[in-house]
Amino acid sequence: MNDIKLVEKAADNIRILAAAMVEKAKSGHPGGAMGGADFINVLFSEFLVYDPSNPKWEGRDRFFLDPGHMSPMLYATLALTGKYSLEDLKQFRQWGSCTHGHPELDVMRGIENTSGPLGQGHTFAVGAAIAAKFLKARFGEVMDQTIYTFISDGGIQEEISQGAGRTAGHLGLDNLIMFYDSNGIQLSTPTKEVSEEDVAAKYTAWGWRVITIKGNDTTEIRAALTEAKLEKSKPTLIIGNTIMGKGAVKDDKSCFEGKTSTHGQPLSAAGASFDKTVENLGGDAQNPFAIFPESKDLYAKRANELKEIVAERKTQKEVWAKANPELAEKMQKWFDGYIPTIDWENIEQKPNQATRAASATVLSVLAQKVENMIVSSADLSNSDKTDGFLKYTKAIQKDDFTGAFLQAGVSELTMACLCIGITLHGGMVAACGTFFVFSDYMKPAIRLAALMEVPVKFVWTHDAFRVGEDGPTHEPVEQEAQIRLMEKLQNHSGNNSMLVLRPADVSEATVAWKMAMENKSTPTGLIFSRQNINDLPAKDNRYAEALQSDKGAYIVQDDANYDVILLASGSEVSTLVDGAKLLHADGIKTRIVSVPSEGLFRKQSKEYQDSVIPTGKKVFGLTAGLPVTLEGLVGCNGSVWGLNSFGYSAPYTVLDEKLGFTAQNVYEQVTKLLK
Fold first, then answer.
1. 1: exposed, middle or buried (C-beta count within 10 Å: 0-12, 13-18, 19+)?
2. What is the pLDDT of residue 468?
3. Which of 67, 72, 68, 71 is nearest to 17 (CA)?
4. How do residues 51-87 score in pLDDT, each as one tens digit?
5. Fewer beta carbons within 10 Å, N or C terminal of the chain?
6. Residues 66, 70, 71, 76: is their CA dihedral positive or negative?
7. How many CB atoms lie within 10 A of CB 477?
8. What is the mean pLDDT of residues 13-29?
9. Mean pLDDT of the region 417-425
10. What are the DSSP E strand ranges found in 439-490?
11. From residue 537, how far is each of 353, 515, 534, 576 by CA, in Å?
12. Helical H runs in 197-292?
C-alpha cells in the first residue's frame, strides 16, 4: 500500500496542473478538477488495470468520464501515466492541440469516450459494462474486467441518469463502479438551489449498492473502491463529498474553497490567487507545469505493478487459448471487427412488404450469423420489428448475459447511449430500434456517435405520416431533414459524419442492412416504412439492381429521350412508378431515380452524378417529409412535392389522398412543371 502522504502529494500535483492549464488558456473549469483529483489519483495509481504498452488491450478496465468540463483533471492524471506531455497540457484548448476543451475519444492516450453533454458519459459506461458481461458469458474469466465511471452533480441531474441508473440496477451490473463527485456546486448556483433529492436513496431503489465517503480522503476512497470490487450482485455508487476548488486560496492565503465562481473560469478570474494556490499545494508558482518527483515515483511504481498484472493476465489467456483455440480465434476476430460472410442475395424477402418487415427478415439472419451483435428496442420490438432478431436469441437478464437482445424500456436516449457504450467497449456490434419520430429523443447521442465515428446501427421505423391514425405526434415530417443534415456534416476524418438510408422496397432494405453492417467508420441510420410498399420494377435481378444503392442514388427505370426525371427515397419511389404510367399514357417520357442517400450520392464522381441527374433536365421530387429533403437534388430547374405541415390523424390511405401522395397528383404536378 502506498504511503498516504505520497498519494496526497500526487493529488495536489494533479490539482496544480489542472488549475495551470485553465489559467494559461484563460478558459476552462478548474474547481471541479481540483476537487475530484483525489479519487482519480487513487483510481489510476492503485486500482485501474490497463496495459501501459498497449492501450487497446481488450482485457483492460475502462474509465469513462462523464463531466467533460473536468478534462484538466483527466489530462493531468494521464500526464502522470506518460500519455500526455507537459507541452500538451500547456496547449489546453488551443488550435491543433490534443488536449481539447472536453475530452474526445482517443484510446491510445487513455481516453475511452468523448464527453461533453452531461449524462452521456456514464451511460456509455453502463453500455460498456453490458458488453463486458456479454463477452464474459462467452469467453469466461479471460474477459473479467471492471468498468469505472465518474459523474458530477450535472450528470446526476440530467434526465438520462434515470435510464442509466435503472438499467444498471435492473441488470445487476456488478462490474460497474461509479464515483459521484458531490461538491454541492454547479456552474451558476449551489446545487441546493435546484435540487433536494436523496441521491443515495434513489440509487438504492434502483438496485445499486451505495457507499458514501469523504471524497477527498485517500483512505476512504481506497476502502470504498476495495468494497466495490468485492460486490458480486449490484453496481456500486460511491458518493464522494468533495470540495470544489480544493486548495484554492486568496492573495492573503485565506481559504477560497467551495466557491461557485471557480466552477467555470480560471482561479484568478474567480477571485482566488493562482500563484498563492499553487504554493499552497506545494508547487512553484513560477513553474506550475511540473511533475513532482513523488508523483513520478508513485506512477512509475504503478507502471511496474501493471506490467506484472498484465503479464499474468496474458499468461492466463495463453493457457485458456490453448485449451479453447476456437473461442480464442473467435474473440480475436470480434475485436478485429470481423463480420462473418452473409449471403445477402439469397435472403428471401416476401414481395411488396413494408420495409420494416424486410428489416426483420434480415435481422433474423444476423441473429444467427453475427454472434457478437446486440440489438435493442425501446419497448417497440414487435412494432419496429427488431423482434426478427429476438426470435433467434433471448433477452439479456440479470445473472444471464447469454442472450443478445437488450430490452431498454421506454428510454430512447438511454438506449442509444447504451449501444454507443457497447460499441466503444470493443468486440461488439450494436443496433437499436424505435419509431422514427422518436429519433428526436436520440439526437444528442447520434451527434456524439458521429463525432466519435462509432458504427452504431440506428433502426427507425414508421418513417412518415403513414403512421396514420396515431396522428401528428407520431408522424415524422421534419425528422428526415434533420437526420440527413448529418450526411452533410463532415467528421474529423473528412467523411460524411453519418450514413442515412431510406430504402424504397424490400430489396433495397436488404442492401441497406448490407451497407450498414459493412460500414465500420460512422453510425448508420436505417429508415423503414410501416406500410407495405410495391416492389420497384426489375430489369433483370432486382437485388442486383438495388446494390446500386451504394452510390446513394441510381436509375430505377428509364425511357429513351426522357422528358423529366422523377426522384424520391423510400415508399415515394413506388408512387413515382405509378405516376409514370399515367404520364406515359400522355406521351411523357420519364427517368425514375431512387435516392436512398443523398449524402452518399454527393460523394460520387461528378461524372456519375451527371449521368444520373444531368444538368438542364426537368426534375420532380416527391418526399413525405419537408421539401428541403430533396430541394438540393431538384435544384432551380424543378419542383418538390412534400409536406409543409404536421400530419393528421386518419388511415394512411386517406392521408395519401388528402396530402397528394398519389400517382394522380404526380401526374398533375409533373405536367404543370413541364408546361
1. exposed
2. 87
3. 72
4. 999 999 999 999 999 999 999 999 999 999 999 999 9
5. C
6. negative
7. 20
8. 98
9. 99
10. 457-461
11. 14, 22, 9, 12
12. 199-205, 218-230, 267-270, 274-280
Residue 517: partners with Cβ closer than 8 Å, 6 or more residues away: 339, 342, 366, 370, 429, 457
Percent with pLDDT over 70 in the chain: 100
Is residue 638 a contact partner of residue 621, using CB atoms and an 8 Å limit?
Answer: yes
The grid cell for 670 is 409533373
**Residue 567 carries which side chain, given as an amino acid letter?**
L
Measured N-to-C along each axis, helices 412-425 and 120-139 cross at an angle, to the nearest 10 degrees, of 50
What's the confidence (pLDDT) of residue 637? Answer: 85
Among 206, 218, 208, 205, CA closest to 178: 208
Give the neighbor-by-neighbor strand order of the sheet with 457-461: 405-407, 373-377, 429-435, 457-461, 524-527, 499-501
Does residue 149 register a pLDDT over 90? yes
Give the residue among 320, 290, 391, 270 at the shortest CA–CA distance from 138: 320
Q: What was the pLDDT predicted at 1?
A: 85
Which residue in the block uniquely carries the three cell numbers 506550475? 288
Residue numbers annotated as active site: 412
Confidence band for 476, pLDDT divided at 50, 70 and 90: very high
The answer on pLDDT for 94 being more than 90 is yes
Q: What's at 561, amino acid-wise?
A: N
Q: What digits encode the pLDDT tens for the residues 351-408?
A: 999 999 999 999 999 999 999 999 999 999 999 999 999 999 999 999 999 999 999 9
Q: Does residue 408 contact residue 420 with C-beta atoms inside 8 Å?
A: no
Place of cell 414508421: 462
586, amino acid identity: D
- Residues contacting residue 397 through CB under 8 Å, at least 6 positions apart: 171, 403
Amino acid, res. 609 = Q
User: In terms of Cα–Cα distance, which of 660, 89, 126, 69 is closest to 424?
Assistant: 126
Q: Which amino acid is at 539?
A: K
pLDDT computed for residue 93 by the predictor: 98
Write down the pLDDT at residue 90: 98
Q: For 501, list phi and psi in degrees, rounded to 5.
A: -130, 130
pLDDT tens column, 451-468: 999 999 999 999 999 998
CB-count burial class (<10 Å; 0-12, 13-18, 19+) for 230: exposed
Which amino acid, one-letter code, is at 555?
I
Q: What string of H, E and C letters represents the secondary structure of 95-126?
A: CCCCCCCCCCCEHHHCECCCCCCCCHHHHHHH
Q: How far is CA 99 from the centre of its chain?
A: 21
Cα-flanking dihedrals φ and ψ of residue 85, to 5°? -90, 165
- Is 599 in contact with 569 (CB distance < 8 Å)? no
Q: Is the dihedral of CA 206, 211, 212, 217 positive or negative?
A: negative
Provide the whole-model pTM. 0.98
CA distance 266 to 10: 21
* pLDDT, average across residues 79-105: 98
Is 277 buried (19+), middle (13-18) or exposed (0-12) by CB count in 10 A?
buried
Helices (H), 234-324: 267-270, 274-280, 293-323
H-state helical runs in 409-453: 412-425, 443-452
How would you class 432 by CB atoms within 10 Å of its CB: exposed for 0-12, middle for 13-18, buried for 19 or more? buried
The kind and range of the H/E element at 6 are helix 4-25
Return the closest-CA partner of residue 42 out of 220, 175, 252: 220
DSSP H helical ranges for 213-354: 218-230, 267-270, 274-280, 293-323, 325-335
Question: By percentage, how much of the chain surpasses pLDDT 90?
Answer: 99
Cell numbers at 273, concatenated: 490567487
Going by pLDDT thresholds of 50, 70 and 90, the confidence category of residue 191 is: very high
Please state, in angstroms and rounded to a whole number, the distance separating the CA atoms of residues 309 and 141: 15
Cell digits of residue 512: 441497406
